[in-house]
Design goal:
6 strands; about 200 residues; Rossmann fold; alpha+beta
Length: about 200
Amino acid sequence: MVLIMYRLKANGRAAVIVPDGFLFGVDGAKLAIKTKLLKDFNLHTIIRLPGSIFSPYTSIATNILFFNNERVEDAPDGYSTKETWFYRLDMPDGYKHFSKTKPMKLEHCQPIKEWWHDRKEIVSQDGNEKSRCFSVQDLILLDCNFDQCKFPKDEEEILPPAELLTNYFKKRAALDYEIDKTLAEIQKLLGIEIKLD
């Protein structure tokens, strides 16, 4: 990221794919890089991509940072960025995740194109932000935490220990039955009979 920032010409534009860790990391180096990005460049858009977009090669969630090497008019003193838009690209209908047999297609990016030319803040029915604009002051107050407009997390049901054990033994018994059935079929095909004591 630092090399791209260093090599970007005056008035140059960049779109850089980064892993999620870059967005929410606030250790010294990441914080310094993100602060420099806001001060020396116009970081105007961050697109949050679905976690399986590069499957099967990696399951790491990624994002696209769009910035250019110029100062925005009316940006606060000491900064080139005035505001940054965040947009979350959700999985298309009929997809639980992308894979080698069900890869991402160009038409799956259509929602980004539509939003890009008509930017507005979007809150989904479940109350999660899908798109939002943050001022550079907001981002500084957030310690440059760019982990905004996140993907909703499925709530995990926590069962009592006794119920967990009961479910485990039921699943294990069903699996043992399937294994025994398959082994019996293999023995029949081979014409051998093995009895275990």
